[in-house]
Design goal:
The protein has helices spanning 2-11, 19-37, 43-50, 54-60, 64-76, 79-86, 94-119, 135-150, 161-173, 186-195. The chain has 203 residues and is mostly helical. The longest helix is centred in the middle third of the chain and has 26 residues, at 94-119.
């Protein structure tokens, strides 16, 4: 006799959640599923993973295509990466700060690649972000966050923090890859960036 009541209690889903909050929750649930299944993922599967009814999705998204576009925009958004960069302790030595930054940005790029690759970048254009930022704005915001990490060592840098940040950002995106060599770890990448390609004993 108590099972139906328990079931009803279990089915109550965040009654105070606004449409924007619900959209955000659905997008965050959908992103890993899209990375795994691509455009073949069903709204029913997304709803089950989110613990909601499928109809709830269509109360905040016009259709599945709008949901997929919103997920692409969120995956390409710099918001999460910028938050992680801002959270790095600037009292750490510069190599440690940059290694943490490299890890955060590599995770960001991996997420972008998984979503865009699985959906074939539907339409081929950068859709911006859920808050309207396009590719240039995303790059600018990430570079600015990197520059903040470099600011405490400004006096020892050969170039202004903004320029060094742009170089580091570029290196992360263009890290050379060969078939027989693994990617550099964040620590290795930072070491080469800060000290160059020559070994310590080279003259």
């Amino acid at each position: 006799m108590t099972a139906p009541k328990e079931n009803q209690t279990t089915r109550r889903r965040a009654p105070g959640m606004s449409p924007e909050e619900r959209r955000a929750m659905i997008i965050q649930t959908a992103i890993p599923l899209i990375a795994e299944y691509g455009a073949a993922v069903t709204t029913a599967k997304i709803a089950r993973a989110a613990g909601i009814g499928e109809g709830t999705i269509f109360r905040v998204f016009a259709d599945k295509d709008e949901l997929l576009q919103a997920c692409i925009a969120e995956a390409l958004s710099p918001e999460h990466a910028v938050r992680e960069l801002d959270a790095i302790d600037v009292s750490q030595p510069l190599p440690d700060r940059l290694a943490e930054a490299a890890e955060a940005l590599q995770a960001h790029m991996s997420r972008m690649g998984a979503i865009v690759g699985s959906l074939g970048h539907r339409g081929g254009k950068h859709p911006g972000t859920v808050r309207g930022a396009g590719r240039d704005e995303s790059t600018t915001r990430i570079r600015a966050a990197l520059a903040e990490l470099l600011e405490p060592d400004k006096a020892t840098l050969r170039r202004p923090p903004e320029q060094v940040a742009a170089l580091f950002f570029g290196l992360l995106f263009t890290q050379p890859r060969t078939e027989d060599e693994p990617d550099l770890t964040p620590q290795e990448l930072v070491e080469v960036f800060l000290h160059g390609a020559l070994s310590g004993g080279a003259k």
